[in-house]
TrEMBL record:
Gene3D superfamilies: Nitrogenase MoFe cofactor biosynthesis protein NifE, C-terminal, Nitrogenase molybdenum iron protein domain. PANTHER family: NITROGENASE IRON-MOLYBDENUM COFACTOR BIOSYNTHESIS PROTEIN NIFE (PTHR42956:SF1). This is Nitrogenase component 1. Residues 74-468 form the Nitrogenase/oxidoreductase component domain. Pfam families: Oxidored_nitro. It comes from the Bacteria.
């Protein structure tokens, strides 16, 4: 279905894509249940969402909300300000996101500064009488302090409950200040998974920042939708004579505005890029590169060839692919010998996990299980070439213990016990301490581009060798700590027993 930019509120992932946060079984079974149906959309495409049977647990130990994703997206635009129209507690993430932002700037060789995030600090009186006047004052404060080129406003559960009309306030101040003032509807309870927060930020940018009538196309410019990782895409695409326009994190307002002028749009993860890439193609004719993600040889080859086809650089791509294969093969063979017999486990976002499992299989590492934090049965383009789960299965084979779960520690124990890995790869580090208590070291991928491309295969292999060198420390730790769960729960083999058996 077409993306609707006429309304200020983005459709949730559940509505558009059929997103689920609870499932357990073989990866091949999940692929069969999803809208792509293992590569052939058929009559299923065109539906808003594909409904996959979901396991609904009655207990949640902790998670993330959509507003936090807006913090780490809109809040990372370098010459803009993000206002969180919320109680101060919703702004506690500003501390960690400021650290991530500064590290990201350093990785890219950009001047290191602090985030420009402001909370309206709603209190009890505001919850009774409304907080619109407070929001108006905060927008003016943001302008006087920082003179930004755009101001984003993130809603919250509290503002949704009291019904503040943030769109009217934004419209009034946009006229007064002469800069875009962009409302982002991202209340935590609007969607059951935080990835809708990515879409909310991208929706606002597409509506109010992207140049509607670009005077000319920049035929050598490629939009790369990413987070704050190191700059691995510039050297890769430079081999094809292309320039990179990184969005949304660490971008400027002008970087975002010129997205409509680009020759193509790509991403390192379809979870993050699905909405914006599809909308740029729909609204502005900027082609979304429809290919497997750039992980492992097969994925990176296909990804580069499709970029080359779209931008008419096929010859240069083939030369680059051949050189890179020849360059990385010797060290890859050494890594495979060193890692022979090792078993890994991936616990990250959905599409990202599919790519990482492929890289582990390239390294000769056994992967019997994975926990993904949600599952999208289809992406916004609905193109089977972007079916990252089926690409994983067709290229690298089955993952027998494949779990969709919303980052729940109490389930993680049973998941790891089923496969007993030598190490785990993780993005959101809240689960890593539990693995450490079981004697399992974790690789926290703070730089999400670490495993991208041909060099990424070697990068991940080297990181695994490094973390396995600390195995004895984790085994000693496991011998001297206790887990915070009762014996009954530790004896359960099914992490979803509470969902399957109400009597439990």
């Amino acid at each position: 279905m077409p993306i609707n930019l006429k309304t200020a509120v983005v459709e949730s992932r559940e509505q558009r894509l059929g997103t689920i946060i609870g499932w357990d079984g073989k990866a091949s079974d999940l692929a069969k249940e999803s809208a792509y149906a293992r590569g052939g959309c058929g009559s299923k495409c065109g539906q808003k969402a594909r409904r996959v049977c979901e396991l609904n647990s009655p207990f949640t130990q902790g998670s993330v909300c959509s507003e936090q994703m807006v913090e780490c997206q809109a809040g990372n635009v370098r010459d803009a300000v993000l206002i969180q129209h919320s109680p101060i507690g919703c702004g506690t993430g500003q501390v960690i996101y400021n650290s991530i932002y500064r590290n990201g700037l350093a990785l890219r060789g950009l001047p290191v500064t602090n985030l420009h995030l402001i909370s309206t600090n709603l209190g009890e009186r505001d919850m009774v009488f409304g907080g619109a006047a407070k929001l108006e004052r905060t927008i003016r404060d943001a302008w006087e302090r920082h003179h930004p080129k755009a101001i984003f406003i993130a809603s919250s559960c509290a503002t949704a409950i009291i019904g503040d009309d943030i769109e009217s306030v934004a419209g009034q101040l946009e006229t007064e200040l002469g800069i875009p003032v962009i409302p982002l509807h991202c209340e935590g309870f609007r969607s059951k998974h935080w990835s809708t927060g990515f879409d909310a930020t991208q929706h606002g940018i597409l509506r109010q920042l992207v140049r509607k009538d670009p005077e000319k196309k920049q035929e050598d410019l490629v939009n790369v939708i990413n987070l704050w990782g190191s700059d691995v895409f510039s050297p890769m695409l430079a081999e094809l004579g292309l320039r990179v326009n990184y969005v949304v994190d660490l971008a400027t307002v002008e970087d975002l505005a010129q997205m409509s002028e680009a020759a193509a749009t790509v991403g390192f993860c379809y979870t993050l890029s699905s909405y914006m890439a599809a909308a740029l193609e729909q609204e502005y004719g900027v082609p979304e590169v429809k290919a497997p993600q750039p992980y492992g040889f097969a994925g990176t080859d296909a990804w580069l060839r499709e970029i080359a086809r779209v931008t008419h650089r096929e010859g240069r791509a083939e030369e680059y692919i051949a050189r890179e294969h020849q360059r990385v093969r010797p060290r890859l063979e050494e890594l495979r010998a060193l890692l022979k017999g090792k078993k890994g486990y991936v616990s990250t976002g959905s599409a990202y996990s599919h790519g990482l499992i492929g890289v582990l299989r390239e390294l000769g590492i056994e992967v019997d299980g994975s926990l993904v934090f949600h599952h999208d049965p289809v992406y916004d383009s609905q193109d089977p070439r972007q079916d990252s789960l089926s690409h994983l299965l067709d290229t690298y084979g089955e993952v027998p213990q494949f779990t969709v779960g919303n980052r729940q520690q109490y389930q993680f124990f049973a998941l790891l016990q089923r496969v007993k890995p030598d190490f785990i790869i993780i993005r959101h580090n809240g689960l890593a301490p539990l693995a450490a208590r079981l004697g399992i070291p974790a690789i926290p991928l703070g730089d999400e581009h670490h495993a991208v491309g041909y060099q990424g295969i070697l990068n991940l292999g080297e990181s695994i060798l490094d973390v396995l060198a600390h195995k004895k420390f984790h085994q000693d730790l496991a011998a001297h700590v206790r887990l915070p769960y009762r014996k009954w729960w530790l004896e359960q083999e099914d992490p979803f027993v509470l969902a399957r058996n109400g009597a439990a």
